[in-house]
Amino acid sequence: MDEGASPNIQNEFFNQARREKRRLAVFLNTGRRLTGRIRSFDKFTILLETAQGEQIVFKHAISTVGPVVVPARPRPREAFNNRMEFARGRKGESSTPAVKPAPGTPDEEPGGSEESGEGSAPTS
User: Fold this and answer.
1) Of the residues 19, 31, 38, 68, which has the maximum number of CB atoms within 10 A of its CB?
2) Which residues pair with 69 in a beta bridge?
3) Residues near 120 by beta carbon (within 8 Å), at least 6 away in sequence
4) Which residues of 64-97 are buried (b: 16+ CB within 10 A; e: fewer)?
5) How many C-beta neighbours within 10 Å does residue 45 have?
6) 9-53 pLDDT, tens per residue?
7) Which of 4, 1, 57 is nearest to 26 (CA)?
8) CATH code for the domain of 75
9) Please, what is the average pLDDT of the chain?
10) Number of folded domains in the chain?
11) In terms of residue numbers, what domain contains 41?
């Protein structure tokens, strides 16, 4: 770089990414996301190596370029516990409501409840 010239941040960024063979996410103005490695670039285009092959991307069509971020994967047991908590609603809550069945319904325990025995005459 010349001492009197201003630094070209774009060229420095693309050169470093190309040399380090870093995977980049390139977002286009349309919202589409491309991921790949920069093979080369010039004043108007970037040659991007993607899973589908090489693609030339015009710089005027790019909105953002950044590193590909891979989300951390939870350990298998944590993932299972998280799914179970989600299925229950929240931690500690049961997925079944705590409602007593009405007297006389098929869900009532055999022999009736204590309340149903009140007021009835004893049989002898």
Assistant:
1) 38
2) none
3) none
4) ebeeeeeeeeeeeeeeeeeeeeeeeeeeeeeeee
5) 15
6) 999 999 999 999 999 999 999 999 999 999 999 999 999 999 999
7) 57
8) 2.30.30.100
9) 78
10) 1
11) 1-89
Q: Quick one: pLDDT at residue 71?
A: 78
In a domain, 3, yes or no: yes
For 98, the token pair is 């705590």
pLDDT of residue 77: 67
Does any domain span residue 111? no
Which token pair is 46?
């970037």
- 3-state SS of the chain is CCCCCCCCHHHHHHHHHHHCCCEEEEEECCCCEEEEEEEEECCCEEEEEECCEEEEEEHHHEEEEEECCCCCCCCHHHHHHHHHHHHHCCCCCCCCCCCCCCCCCCCCCCCCCHHHHCCCCCCC
In one-letter notation, the amino acid at residue 25 is A
For 80, phi and psi rounded to 5 degrees?
Answer: -65, -45
Q: How far apart are CA 119 and CA 109, in angstroms?
A: 20
Whether 109 is covered by a domain: the verdict is no
